[in-house]
Amino acid sequence: MTYVVFWNTQRASNIDDNVRAGFMWETVKSWETAPRVPAFDILILAEVTTAFATLLGDMRAYWPSVDADYFPCRKSIQCSYLGIWNRALTGPPEPFGSDRRPMLKFTVNGVEIAGCHLTSRNVEKASEEACAACTHMSFGGGSGVLIGDMNVNFDSITRDAKRNMTEIGYSAVKPRLAQTFRTGGVLDYAWKDNSLGVDPDPPWPGYNDWTIIDHAPIGYRIR
Hints:
Layout: E1 2-8, H1 17-29, E2 32-34, E3 37-38, E4 42-46, H2 50-53, H3 56-62, E5 66-71, E6 81-86, E7 94-97, E8 102-108, E9 111-117, H4 123-138, E10 143-149, H5 159-167, E11 170-173, E12 188-193, E13 198-200, E14 218-222
Parallel strand pairs: 1-4, 9-10
Antiparallel strand pairs: 1-14, 2-3, 4-6, 5-6, 7-8, 8-9, 10-12, 11-12, 13-14
């Protein structure tokens, strides 16, 4: 079983990037199964800046079992990522997708696990991006999970999007949170290959600190 966490660390209001990065790091350090053993196998942070990248050394030192890296996107800060992963489970992630809206993909025991931050304020475009990513992962008979900020409310996924995903054998999985965005709604969730067991398990079930980071972290156990 692989526990994957995604967190869009978009800042709330005019919060300083260093404050936001510090809040993230103190929060993430609390997600442990034992001292210096992270509860997650893979953590994908989206909408990060160089303030987050300065913490890479601290992350590697704090958790000896992990590696971590920063994946900036020159065309869109929303798609700049920071990944932390268990070195015994997987290697470094592979960016894929468009230059403007890249995604970050790990491979664990033949299963592709991708983090994304899709286009906002355009349901049709975001739905197309999600379907294209899942199609990419299913190519050649592979299986995968797309987890991230879909920018389409879970309860407003269109019939066309559901039909297109059904055709390639994917379905959406809600994150077991009442809301994942400050103003309400569930924008962050997963699409999964139907051959996989994917169980929602948020690392912070009652997240409500919307004044610093205005998305909640989501988590899924993949089996």
